[in-house]
Amino acid sequence: MKKNHSIFFTAVLLVLLIITSGCSKQADTSSKDMVDMSVQIFDRGIPGLSITNGFQAQYIKKSMAKKGVNIRFISTPRNTTDEKLNDLMVSQEAPDLCITYSNSLISNYIKLGGLVDLKPYLDKYGSNLKAYLGDNVLKYGEFKGGQYTIPGKRPNTAAFGTFVRKDWLDKMGLKEPQTTDEFYNMLVEMKKQNPGKVENCIPFAFNIDKTSIDWTVHTLVYSFVKKMSEEQFAAKNDYGK
Questions:
Q1: pLDDT value at position 10?
Q2: pTM value?
């Protein structure tokens, strides 16, 4: 693979990151010379939505043009993004800014020398971005001392919730579970006692929607996993694969 240095964003807040990044300070808005920047975005196949030329895209392009940056969007199919990025990297046509959920993809590109260490650039130009994300978020993009990706901050960390039948708890004489062990023991007792007197009692269930299942299972499984270091946690979270 020939080297093609690209910047990867490992979350879905690409638009916000571009607009708030202090890197825009390097553009001379009083000059006629524009800085060209290609940006990869997901095409999720939403009917009627023009990914690269809709009003959202136009707003970003116009806003960045005022800062001296000419934005060109490159769409990739959501389901085959990683494969498409591989093709673009090999053909020397990868966008300047890319987005992925795959840590394994990032690790492979780093080993092949295809990504730029962004740490010195963040220190010089990215003061707004660093202030917004903070060290706790940025460290998920660190690999062997270098800042090779810019993780996105998710404001909705409580997207899924678990509901428990309080009347069942009352019948069994149990309190609301506060820990993983208490939650597990509650399910065991529900199965044994069947406080609702239902046929074939199943104490725990979740939505059949694929996305909901994925995230519910992730949340439940990780609650049983022993404490990991931040590096181990980042390596094991390879969502979107």
A1: 45
A2: 0.57
